[in-house]
Amino acid sequence: MKPRDVVVFAVVTMGLLLLPAFYGRANYLLHILVLSGLYAIPAIGLNLMLGYTGLVSLGHAALAGIGAYAVALLTVKAGLNFWLALPLAAIASAAVGAVIGALCLRLRSHFFMIVTLAFGLILHSVMNNWDSVTGGAAGFAGIPRPDPIGFAAFRSLPEFYRLTVVATAAVFAVQALLVRSQFGRVLDAIRQDEILTAFKGIDTTAYKLAAFAIGSGIAGLGGALEVSYLRVAAPSSFDMVESINLVLIVVVGGAGTLLGPILGALVFVGVPEYLRLASEYRLVIFGALLVAVTLFARRGIAGLFAPRRAKTA
Amino acid sequence: MMLALAEQVFNGVMLGAIYVLVALGLMLVYGVLRVLNFAHGALVMLGGYLCQFVFSHVIASYPLAIAGSIVALLPVGWVLERGVFAPLRDDLQNQVIASLGLVLVIENLVLVVWGPAALQFRLATTQVLVPFGPLRFSLQQFLVIGAGLACVAALFAFLNFTKFGTAVRATAQHPGAALVVGIDVGRVHAVTFAIGTALAAMAGSLLGPLFLVFPQMGDGPLLKGLAAIILGGLGSVWGAVIGGFAIGIVEAVSTLVIPTDYRDAVAFIVIAGVLLLRPHGLFGRTTRYEA
Asked: Is residue A274 part of a domain?
């Protein structure tokens, strides 16, 4: 990692943290940025799988839902402190992700995609129908905002905004460190040519499983923060449409680029708000954008700025 | 209890006929073009809307409305094949992602044009109840099963007894070799996608009068169709037929023992189970590392 990149990262994060000081009254802007961050976090998890390892998971939102309902149950039903519940929620998502991953990874390419879709639907069906635990279709209400730590409280919008910035930056940093590590290079190799990688004596299934579990854990973290912000966990936040939205965010932003998921989330949440689009037009446009990216701009929005990556396979 | 079971089995066969139509379209397009088209359900839905539109605004004849829906949907399929899937040939991951984008485009365009409210599509002639042993079913249900079986027969005959059908099978087996023996592979692809589109229009037209016509009406059939071709093993007509009917019957019968809320999950638990135990479907052959 170049020192310059670290400096840019620190400056941008600090700038975003200071934003409420200048735009303290611009609650709408902060709300949009919080929502973008809450989409960006699970999208970063999916980017590790889809962008870097080549695992197209079509049930990612459901794994975010595991973290969301875990944090809801742990804080409301078990009365746990939010900061204890949050890592447990991420671990729960990673564990469920590991189990589902272990099953799905027995299959390849299109079969893999369909089974991830199937597991996403099954998980959503449980969230939607297990009324006594999840609150069913009406959702799980009364989830608290995070408990204060010392001076830092997270109740108001600017406070939660700062938390979202820190969380997104932290997850972004984890992504950057992971993909540039030895581990990340193996994932990259698997995406480019799994058979060749296996021939190097690498247990590719174990690496793919690890990517699946880490991606799921990150998704769970995002889901937990999301329901803490919205104060309610609704199954519709974790359905197939949301899973497809996450794919859309990653691919349009730039799959396999560090900034892709964040750019994708900002565009996905911000642009329709800016243009005041009705939701059906928004999805027409993003659907068309998704098709266009696959046809003409494989590296998404991030790829338009970045230098061309060396051509491989 | 036996009567309830018999009724649900019949309902399952009827649902299964729809799933078979969807599964055949998916399977043909996958088998020949190597495209896993998630937008197939959106085509089914569009077929339902077009049929309803023709029936209530152009000509009040159900068979002609179905024909109209098929004719109107063909250009849509042609645009998808030429504009999106042909340029992405052999790039499975991006084809799937693009087809997800197409789902968003088609479903939400329909929302813009027809609005979010479900449309009524009531056919007086096919609502008539027909006694069947001690039970009574609507004529539409018999029609669905009959039309489904007729399409299977027609497709089977086309693939096995016509010269072009042989070309389609040859292309499915090996596009390169097909090209060498002088088959116009591009044309085979276009015709195959057109057949898939026509099957989608047919499924949508049959589904519309059974329930309602609404923007998400294709989602369920798409997922069950995917389930069916997986159950039957990708790439065989009979696999898709058996898979489709099996999913329909399991789903309908399961409502007797499991809360109906979980009925969609049932099909997927079956699929996940089958894929994990027999990764190439009940009738599929094993090949390793297919791209």
From this structure: yes
Provide the residue range defining the domain that includes B52: 17-218
From the list A161, A160, A135, the residue with the least C-alpha distance to A145 is A160
Interface pTM, i.e. ipTM:
0.81
Structural domain includes residue B126: yes
Contact assignment for B101 to A111 by CB distance below 8 Å: no
Interval B41-84: pLDDT, tens: 999 999 999 999 998 888 888 888 899 999 999 999 999 999 89
Q: Whole-prediction pTM value?
A: 0.86
Give the C-alpha separation, B263 to A273, whole Å: 37
Phi, psi of A106 (to 5 degrees): -65, -15
Could you give the dihedral angle defined by the CA atoms of residues B115, A120, A246 and B25, in that order, rounded to the nearest 10 degrees? -60
Does residue A310 sit within a domain?
A: no
Where helices occur in B121-236 by DSSP H, the ranges are 139-161, 163-173, 175-180, 185-210, 219-232
CATH number of the domain encompassing residue A271 = 1.10.3470
DSSP assignment, residue A149? B
Distance separating alpha carbons of residues B98 and A67, to the nearest angstrom: 29
Q: Per residue in A13-61, pLDDT tens?
A: 888 888 877 776 678 888 889 999 999 999 999 999 999 998 999 999 9
In this complex, do B108 and A283 lie within 8 Å of one another by their Cβ atoms?
Answer: yes
Q: How far is A129 from chain B (nearest CA, A)?
A: 6
How far are the Cα atoms of A41, A42, A45, A78, A93 from residue A221, in angstroms, in the given order?
8, 8, 10, 19, 8
